[in-house]
Amino acid sequence: MLSPAQKPTLSLPVTIAEKQQQLLDELNLFQDWTERYQYVIDLGKKLAPMPEDLQTPDRLIKGCQSQVWLDSSFADGKVNYAADSDSLITKGMIALFVRVLDGQTPDDILQADMSFIDQTGLKEHLAPTRANALTLMAGQMKQHAIAFAGK
Amino acid sequence: MLSPAQKPTLSLPVTIAEKQQQLLDELNLFQDWTERYQYVIDLGKKLAPMPEDLQTPDRLIKGCQSQVWLDSSFADGKVNYAADSDSLITKGMIALFVRVLDGQTPDDILQADMSFIDQTGLKEHLAPTRANALTLMAGQMKQHAIAFAGK
Amino acid sequence: MPFDPHSIRDQFPILASEVNGQPLVYLDNAATVQKPRVVLETSLAYYEETNANIHRGTHHLSQKATAAHEAARDRIAHHLNAASPDEIIFTSGTTDGINLVANILTGSISAEDEILISALEHHSNIVPWQMLAQRTGATLRVIPVLEDGTLDFGAFQDLLSPKTKLLAITQVSNAFGTPVPVKDYISAAHAVGSLVLVDAAQSVAHKVIDVQDLDADFLVFSGHKIYAPTGIGILYGKTSSLENLPPWRGGGEMIKEVTYESSTYNELPFRYEAGTPNIEGGIALAKAMDWLSDLGLPSVAAHEQLLIETAAASLADVEGLRFYGPSHRQGSLSFNIAGIHHYDLGTLIDQMGVAVRTGHHCCQPLMNRLGTTGTVRASFAAYNTMEEVEKLVNAVKKAAMMLA
Amino acid sequence: MPFDPHSIRDQFPILASEVNGQPLVYLDNAATVQKPRVVLETSLAYYEETNANIHRGTHHLSQKATAAHEAARDRIAHHLNAASPDEIIFTSGTTDGINLVANILTGSISAEDEILISALEHHSNIVPWQMLAQRTGATLRVIPVLEDGTLDFGAFQDLLSPKTKLLAITQVSNAFGTPVPVKDYISAAHAVGSLVLVDAAQSVAHKVIDVQDLDADFLVFSGHKIYAPTGIGILYGKTSSLENLPPWRGGGEMIKEVTYESSTYNELPFRYEAGTPNIEGGIALAKAMDWLSDLGLPSVAAHEQLLIETAAASLADVEGLRFYGPSHRQGSLSFNIAGIHHYDLGTLIDQMGVAVRTGHHCCQPLMNRLGTTGTVRASFAAYNTMEEVEKLVNAVKKAAMMLA
Ligand SMILES: Cc1ncc(COP(=O)(O)O)c(C=O)c1O
Ligand SMILES: Cc1ncc(COP(=O)(O)O)c(C=O)c1O
Fold first, then answer.
1. Where are the alpha helices (DSSP H) in C29-137?
2. For chain B, which end, N or C, has fewer CB atoms within 10 Å of the first or last residue's CB respectively?
3. ipTM > 0.85 (yes/no)
4. What residue stretches are annotated with the Fe-S metabolism associated domain (chains A, B) (predicted)?
5. Residue A51 covered by a domain
6. CB atoms within 10 A of CB C223
7. Closest alpha carbon to B41 in C22, C343, C375, C358
8. Are D323 and D177 in contact (CB under 8 A)?
9. Please, which residues bridge with residue D358 across strands?
10. Is residue A125 in a domain?
């Protein structure tokens, strides 16, 4: 299996749009769903687990069968996200979002076009309930950004 | 339409079986269901109406959509039946039974084979609920005969 | 161009069958209507391509079945102009929907309250309210019917009071075809703070229903009376009227969390859909409503109207014949001939291949009120033709002669 | 000769379909089972030849439909060995049947009484009893489950007392496939004067049920779990247990006479069948039961048993895999892999074309008790093959590797 690390990157992506494009490029290297899923799962595994004491009900986004916790902090005008899930696939999906939005300004996050996820081709392989959870997730991350925007 | 009266009868029927045979002979003269139905309806019309004050709940046999009243009396060792219905077709059907059983002894009535009604071909043109009512009717007439049998 | 019933008859295989050697003339549509091929094929295709249990399933078929089921809900919401698909609850039929509402209202009714129904109601819109009255001690009151089979609106207004907690009223009488201007009844009932349930069992196949325009709190009907299968029905419930009411049936789907000590209930519409629903029935119902709407419900209704008026005009000269209901009727034409039992009339015309219904049409109190034990009712659907009306008329005349 | 599933697969068109480019392997049969062509054709033929509303109709089609519907009741009574067809009540499913019984028992239960259920019950056999307990003030008690997913019969005996008014118990657990020896439970419950309702939703397709031998008071199941459509189910009610209970739903069919003041109710089974029933559903259900009985239910069950045992043996060496339920299981095989979420496992094996169910299987309290939020459940039907078991096993192993 070709791991994304092996792909030569010419310049480091900085903006949300650039990061989205990088993700899409990486995913496009994979032909079949197994590899794509494996890529997402591996992203999930790599995402730093959220400390158990942060996994509180107010940080919980309840999905159909799995649970997602989302936390954020604000420093130097940038938003930092932390997320976790009891489902590895869900966690991998969140990792996609975190990778794209983490370390950006509230304004950029609020203006970000999150429909890139439709171009990943992952959604076709997702149960609609999971796809819904993704939309919910993106919404929640923007909600957090709104809270910081005024500061 | 050929009316049963036009049929030449050689000897008057006396026993239940003879009367049943006579009825079957008469019905066999008719080719189509319209004539048979008309015959039954006409029998119904000819059956003496039961006085209204005899149409009491204890004489009522409740069918699905029509009501039947049955009464009987006992004289000279013979049972006499009176019957009525708000439905003319039902009344005609009862008239068939009355014609066959009226004026017979309780013993003969109890022993009578009432399956002749199946040979009339009428049942095929009857709603099952009506056919059930017929069976009920025959049963009731025998019940009455039982009450007189001991006397 | 007027609607041509001949253009759709071959979609109904059963219409080509024979009864007693005569071609079937099916005029018992108010009892249940025949189903077009496209509806039957929808059920079949569901089982050949999609069937799985819905909700909570992760796998492909389950997702597909869930999507089809929820799409059906959306279509039905659209046809009724509901404000949201969440207001569409799948039931097993009109009777089930009325019982559901009557049960969940138990805690909202007290002994001083009144429940109002009309004299035109079907047993299914009487008995559940009698049972509710018995449970709560409330009083059941009845809007009287006039000699012409219409309701007495003035008497209705007099019956209304702040005690009135619910009005249950039919949009079209199944016994006589009387159309009821339910919108007027609804606004008057709302003015005294009453909820209103509309029984649309007999109207849904004959007129476009707009629940927002009517402003009904609850509206119920059965699939089998609108070209869909039996075993499926709809309860429309306005969100604001339904959201604070308790659940009825308990079970899978209608709960969020269950512990032995207690359960928390799901949102609308799922709170009222316990257990596995009639999945393909709901999908077939949406298809039937699509089909009827594509045919053009108003022009179908105009066609049916013409059949009823022609039948009424042609039967008018039968001696002793009396029609029930007002001169403007919807769906059904109900009559009796003096001195002839409706059962006898029905039996003979059935022999001639014409299927009509006889009896009390599940409206015993109404029949009592009009001094009869029943009537003969011919009822019409999109596929009925002028030639069939002629056969009905001839059959009635011949039967009347035989029974005279 | 053992039963050969290949001989019947072409009767199920859906089994030839593909999911994500892979041939479908349908192992979610405990949720709902696929329907053989003969059952689908029975529904279709009903609409092409017979359809009419039943009972009370004079005309030919109505009589024909009534006869078909009542013949279906007779067949079903025969398959369950009921003492009389009057003990067979058509419902819309298991959940509907349980709610019916829980509601009509309201007046027979008082605040000091106890209702007993088991820890293996489906939400549909928990929530209605919770609601009954709330209505009456009675106490709900739960027969505990042992670590191996079987019930604790000793604890059950200790729970029984003259206060026990009803025991509601499943014949096979839908979550784990645990078979429950209900006959022993029934006789013990009867000994203290309690009624017993058996939930046969998961047993009816896998074993011959003899209600007289079991001596159950009530037994319920859904058509859609025994090769028939959704929207139809059966409540068996022993005449002596049912005859003095009040009605539930009010409406057409269930009454004898209606006046505005009061109604008299019809005999069994009609008293509990208000409104137009799912006519073709009942007929299709009888056909499905005929079909299964003609196949030979015991040999079908033996075949399913072999599939479960083979699957269990082949999965046993997957690292961290834990099975739920006892080693002898009926219909379903439930498991988890340590450190892997059941939802992830289910999602991946669905991608490989294998449809299984994941989650709590409508048994949240049971999952809580065993310390999990859910399991992966593969469940089997007559048409499943050894090759499909192999695909399941391979899919689970591949998914486990991906998620490890
Ligand atoms: C044991 C058990 N009981 C009850 C039910 C509920 O059946 P239905 O949803 O058909 O009403 C099910 C179905 O999932 C079940 O498995
Ligand atoms: C006006 C009306 N209400 C209620 C019903 C009962 O409908 P269902 O038997 O489908 O529950 C009918 C059907 O006969 C009806 O005509």
1. 37-49, 60-80, 94-104, 127-136
2. C
3. yes
4. 25-143
5. yes
6. 34
7. C343
8. no
9. D376
10. yes
Number of domains in chain A: 1
CA distance D47 to D31: 27
Q: What is the pTM of this model?
A: 0.94
- Nearest Cα neighbor of B89 from B52, B18, B20, B34 is B34
Radius of gyration of chain B (CA): 15
Active-site residue, B130 included: no
What are the pLDDT tens digits along chain C (404 aa)?
789 999 999 999 999 999 988 999 999 999 999 999 999 999 999 999 999 999 777 899 999 999 999 999 999 999 999 999 999 999 999 999 999 999 999 999 999 999 999 999 999 999 999 999 999 999 999 999 999 999 999 999 999 999 999 999 999 999 999 999 999 999 999 999 999 999 999 999 999 999 999 999 999 999 999 999 999 999 999 999 999 999 999 998 898 889 998 899 999 999 999 999 999 999 999 999 999 999 999 999 999 999 999 999 999 999 999 999 999 999 999 999 999 999 999 999 999 999 999 999 999 999 999 999 999 999 999 999 999 999 999 999 999 999 99
Chains in contact with A, where contact means 3 or more Cβ–Cβ distances below 8 Å, are C, D
| Cβ contact D249–C24 (<8 Å) | no
Angstrom distance (rounded) from CA C258 to CA C260:
7
* Domains annotated on chain C, with CATH: 6-29+296-403 (3.90.1150.10), 40-294 (3.40.640.10)
CATH number of domain containing A105: 3.90.1010.10
Which residue is listed with tokens 């789907």? C253
C59 contact residues in A (CB cutoff 8 A): 127
Q: Which amino acid is at C364?
A: Q
Q: Chain D: residue nearest A126 by CA?
A: D347
Report yes or no on B10 lying in a domain.
no
By C-alpha distance, which of C370, C358, C361, C364 is closest to C396?
C358
Q: Is B122 exposed, middle or buried (0-12, 13-18, 19+ CB in 10 A)?
A: buried
Note whether D341 and D355 are within 8 A (CB). no
- Ligand 1 atom with least separation from CA of D92: 11
Q: B66–C341: do the CB atoms touch at under 8 Å?
A: yes
Closest C-alpha to C400, from B41, B125, B48:
B41
Q: Is the CB of C252 under 6 A from ligand 1?
A: yes
Q: Give CA–CA dist D182/D196, Å, rounded.
A: 10
Pocket of ligand 2 (CB under 6 A): C 93-95, 122, 124-125, 170, 174, 199, 201-202, 222, 224, 362; D 252, 275-276
Give the gap in angstroms from C-alpha A129 to the nearest C-alpha of chain D: 11
- CA C116 – ligand 2 centroid, Å: 18
- Set C25, C195, C356, C362: catalytic member: C362
Residues of A with CB under 8 A from a CB of C: 64-65, 127-129
- State whether residue B77 is helix, strand or coil: coil
State in Å, rounded, how far the first CA of chain A is from the last one: 45
- Alpha-carbon distance of C205 to C288, in angstroms, equals 10
Contacts of A126 in chain D (CB under 8 A): 347
Of chain C, the end-to-end C-alpha distance in Å amounts to 42
Q: Render C9-32 in DSSP notation, one character per residue.
A: GGG-GGGG-EETTEE-EE-BTTT-
| Single-letter residue type at D353 | G
Q: Please check whether residue B1 lies inside any domain of the structure.
A: no
**Testing the interface with C: which of D9, D197, D230 to mutate, by most C Cβ within 10 A?**
D230
* Interchain proximity B64–D66, CB inside 8 Å: no
- 3-state per-residue secondary structure call for B21-61: HHHHHHHHCCCCHHHHHHHHHHHHHHCCCCCHHHCCHHHEE
What residues of C are in contact with residue B38 (Cβ under 8 Å)? 402
Domain that holds residue A90: 16-149
